[in-house]
Amino acid sequence: MPLHPGSPLLGGLLEQWSCLFEAEVLPRMDPTSRAVLAQVNRAGRDAVRLSPAELACAGRAIGVPLKLVDFVGSAGRLAWAHADGCPWVARTCRLLAGGGDLQALQLARAHGCPWNRSRCWFAASAGHLDMVEYLIETGASVDYGSQLDGSTPLYAASEQGHLDVVRLLIGAGADVDIARTDTGATPCFVAAQEGHLDVVVRLIDAGADVNSALTTTGGTPLHVASQNGQTDVVALLLSATGVDVNQARMNDNTTPLYAASRLGHEDVVERLLAAPGVNVNLPRDTGATPLLVAAQ
User: Fold this and answer.
1) Could you give the residue ranges of the DSSP H alpha helices within 138-208?
2) Are 245 and 238 in contact (CB under 8 A)?
3) 48 Cβ partners below 8 Å, 6+ apart?
4) How many whole angstroms separate alpha carbon 290 and alpha carbon 273?
5) pLDDT digits (tens, 9 = 90+) for 29-65
6) Longest Cα separation, the chain
7) Contact criterion met (CB below 8 Å) for 130 and 136
8) Residue 195 phi/psi, 5° resolution?
9) Is residue 10's pLDDT more than 50?
10) CA distance 121 to 99
11) Would you say 3 and 9 are in contact if contact means Cβ atoms under 8 Å apart?
């Protein structure tokens, strides 16, 4: 039986499809996907019933300019939006770098997207190894830090425990001791703080300064690892050449042993007590010693 525009059967099928579409398809689509549908298909736009917040993504079809930052989720979306006249904005590059879609980033670069100097930081922080590799190959600085705190791509990768990215950045010549401009924390410090043992190993092997202290408190990687109960990291740091087991924080004179004793990290205390040259009687600024605080 042939179908024609006025056919009752066709009308019934379209009504069923519309119900199915609204019940099963639309709820599974994210706002950007619904916005794309609204932009390219007037009937689709009517079916989508965009909320006020989603209208901002829907584009010229409903009188609101599109932005490429709304379409960084895939190369296909980005290409569609760019071809439709969306302008590049300063945030596009960094969102692409952090998003992990290498094809989308390559597309943006090929079509004149402004290159953000911090792009390698965003990719490293998110752990996108192929993205970081591509950015290095295309001239990104491995030491250019975040504009907020000066942390480098290596710091960002170390903080998140992205060992493969850490290896790649070190291999590309990243400086292992560049510290944050606000606190003085180094990649080794933050990796020790978070308990990323493999990352600390790689940083020490690359020559990281294990005694580098925060500019705010004077805390060292050994101090923060002891304070946080990171037994394996403490053991590793104690085996590092030149580590100062008694280096105290400048703001309160607490040593790693004092910090571990106060917080009851028995395994860490045992490791520190067995370290050559440890001074068990060094008090903090209040006069309390590790033994006194452990007994309280």
Assistant:
1) 153-160, 163-171, 187-194, 197-205
2) yes
3) 26, 34, 37, 38
4) 11
5) 666 666 666 555 444 434 444 444 444 445 444 444 5
6) 96
7) no
8) 80, 25
9) no
10) 12
11) yes
Q: Which long-range contacts (CB under 8 A, 24 or more apart) does 87-90 make?
A: 88/112, 88/113, 88/114, 90/114, 90/116
Task: List the one residue out of 158, 164, 146 whose CA is nearest residue 204.
Answer: 158
Residue 88 in tokens: 């590049």
The pTM of the full predicted model, rounded to 2 decimals, is: 0.78
Residue ranges of alpha helices (H) inside 84-220 are: 90-99, 102-110, 119-126, 129-137, 153-160, 163-171, 187-194, 197-205
206 within 8 A of 171, measured Cβ to Cβ? no
pLDDT in tens, 192-227: 999 999 999 999 999 999 999 999 999 999 999 999
Rounded CA-CA distance 201/295 in Å is: 34
CA–CA distance, 109 with 93 (Å, rounded to integer):
8
DSSP symbol at 144? P
Q: How far apart are CA 254 and CA 22, in angstroms?
A: 63
pLDDT bin (cut points 50, 70, 90) of residue 268 is: very high
Contacts of 76 by beta carbon, 8 Å cutoff, 6+ apart: none
Cα–Cα dist 27/29, whole Å: 6
In tens, the pLDDT along 137-182 reads 999 999 998 888 999 999 999 999 999 999 999 999 999 999 999 9
Q: How many CA atoms lie within 13 A of 179 on its CB side?
A: 18
